[in-house]
Automatic annotation (TrEMBL):
One of its GO terms (molecular function) is oxidoreductase activity. Gene3D superfamilies: Aldolase class I. It comes from the Bacteria. The keyword Cytoplasm does not apply. InterPro entries: Aldolase_TIM (IPR013785), NADH_flavin_oxidoreductase (IPR051799), OxRdtase_FMN_N (IPR001155). Keywords: Flavoprotein, Oxidoreductase. Residues 17-358 form the NADH:flavin oxidoreductase/NADH oxidase N-terminal domain. It comes from Bifidobacterium imperatoris. This is NADH:flavin oxidoreductase.
């Protein structure tokens, strides 16, 4: 972390301003801790005391909203090693402890609820399901089994599962939910004409491809009521950011920006409280390097062109996540009105109290993420994305054990840590939860 000037008294900043959501709930400030895979659940997929310690630390660090990592709605369908699953109330006591910790210090804690569809590594799920049959394309395809096409009955069961998980989240004390409809997971698969080749009411036209997302949203809203925040994480397009960060054409034939805008408007009409803008899929990953701060400087804040495009078309609050490393960029984005919430992930794995430092202490430095390397070039090339994920998971686990993050830890130690935690599944690709 690069230091700059420390103010003697905290100035009034846009990041410190509260935000009232369409449902009437007020968030204390504009810091939105975006989802990262904590990888803290055991083989039983249950939340643990480590989740409690981790989210208490982040809540005390000053963020307005903490979004959990993936919480899956079906224990047979996991997206990554260490996922929590909530499909009944067996873990309600620990969920209540997790929610209570995450809502300390006036923070909101929202559960991100998800289903991986075909994007479930073969090492943990040899029988994935999807809108249509067909393997994951690209270099990652070998890591995933061929999925079976969902029947209408199975689709309706998954919709019920999303609503049930949201119900349990509310009962446990989480103050909102985020429906994950991005990053190539199941809802994104329904939205994409590349992945969804159905000929029934859930396939074909955009209206039909979006039906699954709308059905999930409506079922969740009916279950949790009108005053409970519901966010949706949605791809601006299926374009790989590392390749075409500011272009409007997504993956050829995939979910496009024009389609994304239409879906956002429909969600706004249905009463969504916040849209979390993202992008990329497994086949077209968001980031493919481990260059840290150098990568950040090349790219800057993600999705700004798209955010400017929709500024006048939507009134629902937007969370823009990715590339925010200093207060000046955050203030500029809020002042320009291209976002209402500052999404941060990876910096909070190194500086858990970053919101406090900026709002309370007036800190104006920059969080410089390190280049993650094993020191062996061919290993770095072979495990680039996995290496970065493992390194940030290790930092998260340190926080969860009551230790401080340690940016001096090397990539080799991170790989060994991940292998010890997850076994062979650690070496399969995972969506980069820690990428922001």
């Amino acid at each position: 972390m690069t230091d700059s000037t420390i103010a003697t008294s905290a100035p009034t900043t846009l990041t410190a301003e509260p935000l009232t959501l369409p449902c009437g709930v007020t968030i204390k400030n504009r810091f939105y801790k975006s989802a990262m895979n904590e990888a803290l659940a055991g083989r039983d997929c249950a939340p643990t005391e480590a989740h409690v310690r981790l989210y208490r630390t982040w809540a005390q660090g000053g963020a307005g909203v903490l979004v959990t990592g993936n919480v899956m709605v079906d224990h047979m369908q996991l997206g990554e090693p260490g996922n929590v699953v909530v499909e009944d109330e067996r873990d309600l006591a620990m969920l209540r402890r997790w929610a209570a910790a995450g809502t300390e210090n006036g923070a909101h804690c929202w559960m991100q609820i998800n289903h991986p569809g075909r994007q479930s590594p073969i090492t943990i799920n040899p029988h994935p399901v999807a809108p249509s049959a067909g393997k994951v394309a690209g270099e990652y395809g070998k890591f995933f089994a061929e999925p079976t096409e969902l029947t209408r009955e199975q689709i309706h069961d998954i919709i019920r599962r999303f609503a049930n998980t949201a119900r349990i989240a509310k009962k446990a004390g989480f103050t909102g939910v985020e429906i994950h409809a991005a990053h190539g997971y199941l809802i994104n698969q329904f939205l994409s004409p590349l992945d969804n080749r159905r000929t029934d009411e859930y396939g074909g036209s955009l209206e039909n491809r979006a039906r699954f997302l709308f059905d999930v949203f409506d079922a969740v809203r009916k279950t949790v009521g009108p005053k409970f925040p519901i966010a949706v994480k949605l791809n601006s397009s299926d374009v790989p950011i590392a390749i075409k960060v500011n272009e409007r054409d997504g993956a050829p034939g995939g979910f496009s920006e024009e389609e994304s805008v239409w879906v956002m408007k429909q969600l706004e009409a249905r009463g969504v409280d916040l849209i979390d803008i993202s992008g990329g899929t497994y086949s077209k990953p968001v980031i493919q390097t481990n260059d840290g701060a150098a990568e950040d400087r090349r790219r800057g804040v993600y999705f700004t062109d798209f955010a400017r495009r929709i500024k006048g078309e939507l009134s629902v609050p937007i969370a823009l996540t990715g590339g925010f490393r200093n207060a000046d960029d955050m203030e500029r984005a809020l002042d320009e009105g291209i976002t209402q919430m500052i999404g941060i992930a990876r910096p909070l794995a190194l500086v858990p109290d970053l919101p406090n430092r900026i709002i309370r202490d007036g800190w104006r430095g920059s969080v410089d993420l390190p280049r993650v390397t094993t020191g062996i070039k061919h290993l770095d090339k072979a495990f680039g994305g996995i290496l970065v994920i493992s390194w940030f998971e290790l930092q998260i686990h340190r926080i969860a054990r009551g230790k401080h993050p340690n940016p001096r830890i090397g990539g080799m130690r991170a790989l060994l840590f991940s292998l010890k935690q997850h076994g062979p599944a650690a070496l399969t690709p995972r969506r980069r939860k820690g990428r922001q």
